[in-house]
From TrEMBL:
<keyword id="KW-0408">Iron</keyword>
<dbReference type="GO" id="GO:0020037">
    <property type="term" value="F:heme binding"/>
</dbReference>
<feature type="transmembrane region" description="Helical">
    <location>
        <begin position="226"/>
        <end position="245"/>
    </location>
</feature>
<keyword id="KW-0813">Transport</keyword>
<keyword id="KW-0349">Heme</keyword>
<feature type="transmembrane region" description="Helical">
    <location>
        <begin position="90"/>
        <end position="115"/>
    </location>
</feature>
<feature type="transmembrane region" description="Helical">
    <location>
        <begin position="355"/>
        <end position="376"/>
    </location>
</feature>
<feature type="compositionally biased region" description="Basic and acidic residues">
    <location>
        <begin position="494"/>
        <end position="507"/>
    </location>
</feature>
<dbReference type="InterPro" id="IPR002585">
    <property type="entry name" value="Cyt-d_ubiquinol_oxidase_su_1"/>
</dbReference>
<feature type="compositionally biased region" description="Acidic residues">
    <location>
        <begin position="508"/>
        <end position="518"/>
    </location>
</feature>
<keyword id="KW-0812">Transmembrane</keyword>
<dbReference type="GO" id="GO:0009055">
    <property type="term" value="F:electron transfer activity"/>
</dbReference>
<dbReference type="Pfam" id="PF01654">
    <property type="entry name" value="Cyt_bd_oxida_I"/>
</dbReference>
<feature type="transmembrane region" description="Helical">
    <location>
        <begin position="16"/>
        <end position="36"/>
    </location>
</feature>
<feature type="region of interest" description="Disordered">
    <location>
        <begin position="482"/>
        <end position="518"/>
    </location>
</feature>
<keyword id="KW-1003">Cell membrane</keyword>
<feature type="transmembrane region" description="Helical">
    <location>
        <begin position="127"/>
        <end position="150"/>
    </location>
</feature>
């Protein structure tokens, strides 16, 4: 493997790992803020307990998300300096605003929320949480706007040095690709949070039921309302994911048709075009003519153009078209390294685009199915005790995480060999685009990138163990008696961890909602 391949693996692994934290932080932050709002509005103790328990989970994930996200900034300068130089005029403003405006808003007000229990007025304390959550959403928008510019560059002109120069910042912010991707990402984040509430809530309800705990106390209400909230949010988010995904897919057919045709393994142009249910053959070797599919006639034409008859271009035709417009071989330029003068394969890896697209949809459907099961099994006060159903729901917490990760893989791998994809709405001579082969840092060796990849892999593995340990510990402990009081703990107060739910008056109770933050 050369430097480019190793650097791509490194960025892909670290980014997918970080992206597992992002949707949970955004989605769970919104739901925790809703729980806190309900407590302030009604004063009911179950909402306070819900806020404090799920707040712990939210903060553990937030901390790990920040730690893993910092690596991305260093990779831009160390492994991808040519890419950073090319996009710097556009990304500089977006990433600066993300860090200075959104991230500082998020972290500052989150600190106020953590340490403000019982110390500042309730409504001001609630406002601090909402400010932090809004900050995380705004932060996500700036990042998505930057990524969407790479997918569909707008608001720029080509400078004398061949680099894009930003001339319309508003156009970059209101890029239709960014609006579609952002809306899709936010509702997908809510699916992740909803699945977590469902899985853990059902586990706790079953645990209490088998232990003979009463179904009339506050803790029972905490878990039942968590399950019901998570179920309704997951189902609603699934519908919205389908709507926003359809919008995003239609835009992709306009802006990156080869990506979408590859996702369907559609080799030849067809009218009407069928939607592939299952494909087999030589997907991995990109021999499109050797791929066979079970299909639904006309459905792909509808997904692409909202009718059942319009033609959809095939992979072979688009490969020839791209070769004519952007060149059949890489330029004979030292910046391309060993790839200079080599043929360009504009077709993404069919196996990756095809199956990641279906995993994204399939895992989303699994999550929606589990949400429907949770709502049905807890109707009219029922408590499910089926081991398969409850533990299956707990296992299915991972489904929307997989859907988010494979969606990202599809989006990024599908635009290869471009790291900045040409905008088809701009005349060819004025288009901004950049090949991935010329984006890697010229002075970095394969050994150096291998060293950083192995080091980061080991570090991320250790962080994963830490996060799973903390989350399992929190889930097994559940809510505590300290969650009934909004006042801060006494300095030096004792605390013991126990797998059992502490009883009122038990001195083993955890007095502080966010004690690990102190």
């Amino acid at each position: 493997m050369d430097v480019l391949d190793i650097a791509r693996w490194q960025f892909g692994i670290t980014t997918v790992y970080h992206f597992l934290m992002v949707p949970l932080t955004i989605g769970l932050g919104i739901l925790v803020a809703v729980m806190h709002t309900q407590w302030v509005r009604t004063g009911k103790p179950e909402y306070l307990r819900m806020t404090r328990f799920w707040g712990r989970v939210y903060l553990v994930n937030f901390v790990l998300g920040v730690a893993t996200g910092l690596v991305q900034e260093f990779q831009f300068g160390l492994a991808w300096s040519e890419y950073s130089r090319f996009v710097g005029d556009v990304f500089g403003s977006l990433l600066a605003m993300e860090a200075l405006l959104a991230f500082f808003l998020e972290s500052t007000f989150l600190g106020l929320w953590i340490f403000g229990w019982g110390r500042i007025p309730k409504k001001l304390h609630l406002a601090a949480l909402w400010a932090a959550v809004i900050g995380s959403i705004v932060s996500a928008y700036f990042i998505i706007a930057a990524n969407s510019w790479m997918q569909h560059p707008v608001g720029v002109t080509v400078g004398d040095d061949g680099r894009p120069q930003q001339v319309d910042f508003l156009a970059v912010l209101t890029n239709n690709t960014a609006l579609a991707a952002f809306s899709h990402a936010i509702v997908a984040a809510l699916m992740v949070a909803g699945a977590l509430l469902v899985g853990i809530g059902l586990y706790q309800l079953r645990k209490r039921k088998l232990a003979g705990r009463p179904d009339t106390d506050v803790d029972h209400t905490v878990w039942r309302r968590s399950v019901r909230l998570g179920g309704f949010v997951s189902l609603a988010a699934f519908v919205l994911v389908a709507v926003t995904g359809d919008w995003q897919g239609k835009l992709m057919y306009q802006q990156q048709p080869l990506k979408m045709s590859s996702a369907e393994a559609l080799c030849e142009t067809e009218a009407p075009a069928p939607f592939s249910i299952f494909a087999w053959g030589k997907l991995g070797s990109n021999e499109c003519d050797e791929v066979h599919s079970y299909t639904v006639p006309g459905l792909l034409s509808f997904l692409a153009h909202s009718d059942f008859s319009t033609a959809v271009p095939g992979v072979n035709e688009l490969q020839e078209e791209y070769s004519e417009v952007y060149g059949a071989t890489y330029p004979d330029d030292p910046s391309f390294g060993d790839r200079a003068g080599q043929p360009i394969d504009y077709t993404p890896v069919l196996a990756v685009t095809y199956w990641s697209f279906r995993l994204m949809i399939g895992m989303g459907a699994v999550s929606a199915g589990v949400a429907a099961y949770a709502l049905w099994s807890t109707r009219r006060g029922r408590v499910p005790t089926s081991r398969i159903g409850v533990y299956g729901s707990l296992l299915a917490v991972g489904a929307p995480f997989v859907a988010n990760a494979t969606g990202w893989v599809f989006t990024e791998m599908g635009r290869q060999p471009f790291v900045v994809y040409p905008n088809p709405d701009v005349p060819v001579g004025e288009q901004v685009y950049f090949f991935t082969a010329q984006a890697v840092s010229p002075g970095v060796t394969a050994a150096e990138v291998w060293t950083s990849l192995i080091s980061l892999g080991l570090l991320y593995g250790a962080l994963a163990v830490v996060e799973l340990f903390l989350l399992v510990r929190l889930v097994r402990r559940g809510v505590t008696t300290g969650d009934t009081s909004p006042t801060p703990p006494a300095v030096g107060g004792s605390r013991r961890d126990d797998d059992e739910d502490p009883r009122p008056g038990d001195d083993r109770a955890d007095d502080d909602v966010l004690s690990f933050a102190y």
